[in-house]
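Bench notes, bay 3.
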Amino acid sequence: MTSDLTPATSKPTPTALIIRILAFNLPLVFGLFSLKVLPEVLQPFFAGLMMMILPGLAWSDMRGRDFVVLLFRVVIISILASAAVWLALMPLPGPTSRIAFVVGLAVIVNAGLWFGTKRDWFDLTEIVKPLPAVLLTVAALFYLQSFMGATKFVPQLEDQDMELQATAYGMINDGTPNMVTNRGTRFYLAHPLMLHFWIGEGALFEDQIDGFKYYYDASVAAKDPAFDRKAAWDQSFVQFNSTPLLLATRTPNIFLSFLIIFPLGFLVHRLSGSLIAAAGAGVFYATFPEIYVRSSYGGYMAISNFWLVCSAYFYLRATGLFTHGPNVDDPVDSDRRRGFWASFMSSISDQKGALLPMAVPVHVGLRFLMDGGLKDLFVGGIKGAWQKVMPRTDVRAGLGICFGFLAGWMAFIAYGFSVDPNEFYEEHIYDHLIGRLKAAEDQVVSDWVYPSAGELWMQFITHYGWLTMIAFGLALIYGGRRIRQGVGFLVLWFAIGAIGFSLVDWRQTKHFAHFVPALVMLTAVYWASLKGRWQQAFTAFMVVTILWNFYRVILTMQNFTYISPLPIW
């Protein structure tokens, strides 16, 4: 067992220190000259390093860290570093300068390198172990697949790419999501805006941010009551189809498709102890045609699923439900706090992150009942009940997840009302919350109809494959019989999403994609639980299933209409 207080390692050699400094600063040097000087395939990777990795890694004590703990800390600190630079530049006149932004990040990164070197923070022990190395291979392949989809095979999509890229210029320059929407508003406030900021930051590094200025100009012009907003949206749509700037729009999701493999694989390993199951889960996840498309375009799935898996990891770790690997709270930074911040980030990224805060109380409640918690609960009154309930690790971990999501949502509400209270209420609270929880009847929108719940499930089964459904079904039976354990929580994650997304009136398979990680991880753990011939038989079945799924990814690359979710992607 290790902790964040692992004794300091030996001092680095001058050569190692020079290599470290060069490795951290090379992407920043390219950023100064614009990442467009790099081959296209490297641009999202270098942008992702600058946005999500380098500042946080420079300021992280790597000694004895659980890998997912380290990765999460790195991403959070990197977000804070970018926010600090952005806020420092906001008072300056004119648009945000790419050079000034990169220089600001460089100052933070190199200050962290200096500080960390003096304290011997840089320890690659956890990073060079077999599991991270294997997952790195899977992640690299998924990155390449997502890059190919983003740049060669997945066409521009109005409801995804256009709405995500449109706010980039306003977010990075004014901190406001300026866009004349097809709903007649001049701000896009339907969803939280973490991904929108990342798109703006990546576009700034790739020197593409000015290509999104026409959305901003239309939004500013729309202050005039006589301005024709519908005509402005139509004109923006024509411009979008003419110059879609897909790589700049899709850069964060391409990099997030790389990152998600690590928490997903580690969670499987912590529940199963199997390196093969961990790697297999990553491969399984990456070879669904819908996951391939939704990891390639400018939509919310990639960012939401990353935070969902991180939230689940910290909930299970804090509750002590990992059967392999350390379960203790670190002395510096507890897993409950990490769960809070993972759920907070999920909330400011997309409202579908509510899946975990809904599943956690159900899991905690079932565990409480199965432990005989109702017996003598109120002996001693409410104070006695409080004293029985609150010391439970699952209760405390669950509260972190729930309050984190609530805090993130409150922050977005405060932001939205500060931008435009009327439009925020119309866009987010009514259209995308109250309106979605209305009648479960088929909803006619424009010239399309949302499918019924039965039709939605047939789409899901068809898109993910009948072989996959057999694997999912067996895994759900396995997990359902162990509802108190970590695998049981994965079952509830699926169940809450399956019920909730079948009831809302915007029924689309893109919402189902948010419980697919739970099913994938559950299937991998189920495989690891089998022995002898049963495992051999299921291995053969899964190999055939994954190969068939990947073949369907290739078919989707060749013909984008091979899979056509209704009413739209």
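Next record in the batch:
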Amino acid sequence: MKFKLIFLFFLISNFFCSQSSNELLKILTKEISQKKRYSDKKEAAIEDLKRNKSQNPNQEYSNNENIYRLYKQYQIDSAVHYVKKNMVISEQLNNPKMIAESSLQLAHLYSTLGKYKESENLLKSINKNTLDNDTKANYYDTYSKFYEHYTTNINDVNGIKNIELYRDSLLMVLPKSTVQYKINLSQKYIHEGNLDNAEKLLHNLINEAKKKNLDYAMSAYLLGDVYKLKNKKDDELKYYLISAITDTQNAIKDNASYQNLAMIFYHNGDIDKAYLFTKSAIEDAIFCNVKFRTLNISEMYSIINKAYVDKETKSKSQLELYLIFISLLSAILAGLIIYIYRQMKKVTRIKEQLSKTTEQLELSNSEITKTNEKLQLLNQQLSESNQIKEEYIAYFFDTCSAYINKLEDYRKNLNKKAKDNQLDELFKTLRSNTLIENELEELYRNFDQIFLNLYPSFVTDFNSLLIPEEKIVLKKGELLNTELRIFALIRLGITDSVKIAAFLRYSLSTIYNYRTKTRNKAAESRDLFENRVANIGEIASK
């Protein structure tokens, strides 16, 4: 059981890594539209913590710290509020460890907000020699990140050196088995140019991840940095996409992947994607109030936004030209249609005149007669389809006339019995279904004949769609049976079971059962069976 759980976690953590950049790009584009849903989920979790009723200061401190951790990379101003509350509690309890932890948390938030002086003052106020190992690790980590934030927008050589100095100190106190140690070690490898070791270490972190959290996103981001330095464009894009997706799903607003993605697509000439990711990055930075990222993104945003506006302006101008061009073509086309229509009318008049002239010259000019005979043959071929229509229209009128005569004979018969006071015979005749049954039988026989005249190969074609052992064998004298009539109506375009039931005088459930039963006999896909029935056979030539 334990092995299965570990294997499941492994599959989940490697889900994104197995997908291509195009698939990941589609996922990220979709996830951007779902940002509010993820933010609502995080805020709901925060509200649950806020509703907790603390029994004592220690519990309140712990609850405030949990709220701070959720706000830390989501909404920094709110995170500051809860850290300050904890500073008050820690001073009331006169707990040096709590005071140091709160001060370090506030110092980190201040550097993120761009309040470098306040952050530095807090860090200098802490005596590292009094700290336990865990708090000392936090101290070195906060100092390292302080210089990271400070040097993001300011080129300070000493600041960059201090990042690595404090990271080295951090690595000395962190347990080597922790994720934090491995992430910082990979950053050290990247800084030193030891890219192969960094790549191997980060891949292991991603493969070992049990859930897609902040550490997972950070590992993917650093792996993107490694491939950027190795000039492996596809892998660089892939891991920045994975990092951005993870940040979005965890509602992490303090992120860097969107900014890097924007630059990649900008340099690739995909201004729409570059604009989308830049807009997302600056919205997150402003919402979170990450000052150093906002400053860093603003310059890039102005460049990409200008390119986007220029592209939209160019597209609009092109669209206007296309509209003008289409309008001109439409006017020309309208003129051509009018001209062709007039020419067709002239041609029709000329044909009529030629026909009369041909009749007059038929006796005196044999060559013209032969030519006219050929033209008549062509006209005969063209009118063949009209003859088919005339034949079935005539059949329709004959059928209607026959029904009228039968109704008249039936009326006379009933009238005679009524006059002769043969009431028993009259009621017997009225109650009898024989007439209806005979007429229905004739109706179906006529329907079968007409349909098979139109589609003589229907039964054979229909059977070819069924599995061999379910092919329909008609009884002697049968043209179609009930099952074939249902699908004959479908072939004629009547697919509504209500109409089919009314025509064949069956219940709706019976029609449904017939259709379902026959679909289950299909040689191929049962879902496409009726579509194939609707396309079988061709109208027979007369």
